[in-house]
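Hi R.,

Here are the chain sequences for the assembly we discussed:
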Amino acid sequence: MSPAAAGAATPSARVGIAALARNYSGRLAGWGLAWLGAVVLAQVLVAFAPGDAIDTLPDPALREQLSAEWGLGTPVYLRVFRGTAGVLAGDLGSSWTVQPGAPVGDAVVGAMCASLPVLGAAWALAVGVGAAARGRKGARIARAMSAVPVVLLALCVPGGVNALAWKGMAEGWWTRPAFFALPVEGGAVRDLLLVGVLGLGSAAMAEVAARLAEADARLEEAGFLLAARAHGADERALRRLRWRHRVVPLVEAAQAVFTPLVGGLVVVERLFARPGAGDLLWRAVELRDVPLATGVVVALTGTTVVVGASLDLLRRAWDPRLRMGA
Amino acid sequence: MLRSPSSRTNRLSRPILIAALGCVSLLGSAAAGQLRYAEDQAPAIVNPLFTTSMAETRVSELLFQALYADDHTLASVPQLAESGELSTDRLHMTVRLRDNVTWQDGTPFTAKDVVYTVRAMKDPATASTEAGRARFISDCREVGTHAVQFDFVRAELRPEDKLTFKILPASALQTLPVKRTDSFRKNPIGTGPWSLVKFNDDNSVSFAANAGYRGSDGLDDVGISQITLKEVADKNYQAKLLLYESIDALVRVLPRDLAMLQANRKVELYPYQTNSWWYAGFNLARAPFSDPKVRQAITEMLDVPNMLAPIGTGDLITGPYVPSSPFYNHETKPWPHDPNAASALLLSAGYQRDPDGWYKAGRKLSITVSAHRALESAQEVTINLQSQLQGQGIDVTIDFLDEAAWRQQVWTDRNYDVVLSQWTFDRNEDIREQFHSTGSRNLMGLKDVEVDRLLDVARDASDPLARKTALRATHQRIHDDLPMVFLWTLDSYAALSTKVKAVSVHPFAFFTWASEWQMQ
Amino acid sequence: MILFLTTILFLGCRTAPPPPPDPLDASWIATVVREPERFATTLEGNGGREAWQAFHRSDWLNVQGTLAGSAVSVPEHRARAELALLERLLSRAQGDALLALAQGWAKHSPDQPVPKWLIACAQRVAELRSDAPAAERWRAQAVAAGIVFDETNPNPFVIDRMAEMDLDGVRVGAGTIGENAAMGSFWDPTLPAALEQRYTQVASPALGVGLPVDLFGPIVEAALGTRPDTDDVEACRAFTVGIDTRLDAWSARLNETASPDGKALLQDLQLVQVGRSRTLSALAVDAVEHHRNSCAAFYAEQALDQASSRQISPVNTPTVFAVLAVANVETGHVREALDALSPLRGAFPESIGVIETIGDLAVQQGLERTGLSREN
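And here is the predicted structure of the full complex:
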């Protein structure tokens, strides 16, 4: 390329980056507002659930003192306002009933460290298998596999594994394996099962497969594959071309399925009796521990926002048309 | 003939697989001397001042001691006390304390700890859940390093029966009032046979034998070196874990698991002497349940044996006692299952029967039955109850409530039609709080002057026969008032592995005599 | 070489010597399963099917027919012997409770004088137990309280009026409440002892040997091993575990080799469970009669079918409940004794007096206590 041609390319790239930044700042603001909305909504929902934290304690004599301490006598909007302000200032407070007095930040960090690897692995599994199952037939199979509710799987799988282990012990195939008596006996096997149930049992895999199948269909209709073939492109080149065009729908699919997986995490952690953010959120809601529930929601929605925003950025960086705001 | 590589692989794969699994097979069962037991939920606070659940009560039993405790006949015997002297007017008691006891951190146990504990319990700012147990004490002071004097509000005949609350270390807590959030809750210090080692990441709790423990019977060694509390939220799974040898003790066995556990030679069942019964209670402050005819009609529509059959074995009851109780009135006849008579009652109460139900003044007779989510087998019972009543033209909605919603809706707001629940009493079977018009647990809102009188007579009786007579009359009267449909009492058992020896189980606190248990 | 190999083969193929006979194979269970026809003949020739069915399900009162009958069958004799034992145990439980109630009165109810009937009953029970010093103490108290038995206040105790009484009618009708002008009405503690005497009189002492005598009874003792003779629950537990282990293996073998009729009998009549229960019941009775109460309670608990522990059944005999009651009263577990007796209330009206007396003791022990309660 001549120096003139090279210089002619730079202004359009600068325009692309500027457009990306302009578009993206709007999206980022949207993500931030969604996160804030989730924090507010979580507090509102727990506040309006029947009963308060004080109701989980048996003695009515405690009511007055703890109501004052926890601000349960103040109007809901004021409690939510103060709670949200605290979150924005970085003060998550301390747990009321689940781990009385324990700083919420410490509890949440510990729980997230336990959950994130599992969530990430399940997500990767769902996206990977969904991508491998692309195509109409694959998408149908993936949908069929996802038809069994996650809850049922989470209930049945440990039982099935235990029954097999019990039989093995009775037949003398092995002595007591470490993974036996799930879900009480933890360890790698339980985590792998949890990842499998969450990744394969949720609708995420089917969603990814369906989106990719749709994208492939659009790709065929677009006609440029035909044109590339006509220009002498071999199968390898055509495959590369297909995958280049699949990246964006794949990223969009991955982005779309992450949030439902977070919801599924709450269920499977509870059913597998595995301590983590989902289990902690369940306990916090059950015991109406508003600071702890808020803290977990802050962390989980924050993670969703970071993942979503990052994938969004990746998507735009990959596809020049999106950078231009198309 | 040469074997093909694939067949060689096939021949080798099975032993390799078995060897690999053998390598993976680590011993999942307990180390020697370790007892593992299951709880529905791990304790949030380990501080006897703030006990809110039975799991916390049982943990307190492992870690802490009291001035007096139950012996195997449930008579009160000295534990941290050495002896006690009651004054002739029964208003004062001097308790001499044992001088060979130390806290788990090595600090000697003294009278200061007893005085501190009583003051902490009585301090309104502490808001202790155990405050009621110290209400009978007007004052408590040190009269020596190892002697305490109690002054009582009223003359007490046997105060040692009431000095059974756990004693806390003044040196560890130091100030008053005591806060729920005090770090003591995670690092409790007691004088009991075990000490808390740590709260584990998987919500289990580990305890180890307290090297400094001094038993009141002179026996200092405990037969179990480690105890682990495992959190198993699913009650239905707990019995399976006992069979799988993942736990060694199950505090309460579901009735439907009894046959399975009894058939297993590695498990032994221990019957509880508990006085607990199920009931379906009416909100007497709400129409139409304020009308005795409506209550009787609903009662006579119910086939109670049919409701009991799916959930286990037990005895039907006609009043607020279990049939083996000395206070149970065997002359009281159960309300009959008589749908025709029930219909007649509703008609006489002003209801009309339409094809789709019972109506009065344009309003359909419908009931919401509220049940606590944690009540075992409640689902089967409520579904059965619902289908029975709907078959008689009464709409029934079921509402399962978690703990917070139950407390708020049922206890605080009294916003319910019918509740399905269960009461458990200790051996004294004191029903006063549940049925006296001034009772703090009178959920149904019963106000019967005669019941009040009989309960007062029973409370004040010093003649056992007079108390028995009064409470049997109370049974009959409450049955007739029909504030609740008395359903049944269920068999109650604990189950332990046969590896645990010399077991005796306290009916309320479970671990009271655990220092005598031995682990094979 | 061939000779050597042949010799080895010959030695290896010799059949192993037969295993020694299992003593359990001599038990009535094995006889019934292996010889169903002999079982049927035994039933018909010794009292009839109905009598044996009632005996099997522990319905002893309906085995016996009338007490005055002269031609009494084997199941009736055995039922009366069981009933005599039951009444002896009930008498002991009621007597223990009554004496404890009387002795504890001053401590628990210092403001109330000891009721006259209680003094008189304590004195009579002490006499029946041949406890002369205690009887004398209570007699002195009775005299001081003005309790005199004469024409105006006749002796109300049934055991002293046995000759003139139809005990069946008394037991069934009243459970009995004694009545005396000086003492008022009370639960007569001598009724179970009176019934025991009557059943003992009419039970045959020598039934001989054979299947009719062993049927639905304990398993032959030689098969069980040496029982512990100390009040050590762990030793009793180990002994029971040994019994169960042997029974499990043996019953599996028996079931494999049984004919279809034998298998049906094994299952329908729960022969192994019944044999086990009656064996443990016998061990419990032996323990309680030697005052090894902890072991007695243990054996009795083990004998029960926990899945239906509140009912009299082929496995849950009245004797087991009575042993539990005695053992619990004598070890201070008074409230547990009431649980144990509850299943007897309907079938044995005389047990009502026992239950009421033990109940009074339980109430007395809790007089000064306030109670705890919890929801769920």
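Chain A has one domain: 12-323. Chains A and C do not touch (no CB pair under 8 Å).

Let me know if anything looks off.

Best,
T.
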